[in-house]
Amino acid sequence: MYSRILVPLENSPADETILAHVRDLAKRLGSAMVLIHVADGWVARNINELDLRESQEIREDRAYLEEQCRRLEAEGFDADAVLAGGEPAKEIAAAAEREQCDLIAMATHGHRLLEDVVRGSTATALRHLTKVPVLMVRADKK
């Protein structure tokens, strides 16, 4: 049903919630996983346009993604990692198409409408940017 699942990670405890869910789904369906993190600091948003060097944020994000990918591969999963920079919803939608994913599975924080208006919501924005189905799993509050 789903051969490639894109899993946005944010380097927070919410990642464990979605990874646990996707592990089970991928195991049942034989799906590959593509992990993505979108670095959204100033350097990450402008690295290409201004020909900047990688920031500490980007190096740490890359190391985190690679570690998560290694863990999944050690468990027998087919997993790849993609580090992007910029506006999260746009980068996730672009990666879903580029990586030929047929599902995006992500953790949400259960914000309320007013909080989403103030903070913005990547999950809400994705609905308007991609035709790929989006599975949202509410992260545990810790």
Care to describe what's here?
With 142 residues, the protein is α/β, with parallel strands linked by helices. Helix content is 46%, strand content 22%. It has six helices and five strands; from the N terminus they run βαβααβαβααβ. β1 (4-8), α1 and β2 form a beta-alpha-beta unit.
Which structural class do you get from the secondary structure elements?
Answer: alpha/beta
**CATH topology-level fold name:** Rossmann fold
* CATH architecture tag: 3-Layer(aba) Sandwich
Under CATH, the homologous superfamily reads HUPs
The beta-strand count equals 5
Tell me the distance between the termini.
33 Å
The helical percent reads 40-55%
List the helices and strands and how they pair.
Layout lengths: L3 E5 L5 H16 L2 E8 L2 H5 L9 H19 L4 E7 L2 H11 L4 E6 L4 H7 L2 H8 L4 E5 L4
Parallel strand pairs: 1-2, 1-4, 2-3, 4-5
Helix pairs in contact: 4-6
Quickly describe the structure.
By secondary structure, this protein is α/β, with parallel strands linked by helices. It has one domain (4-138): Rossmann fold (3-Layer(aba) Sandwich).
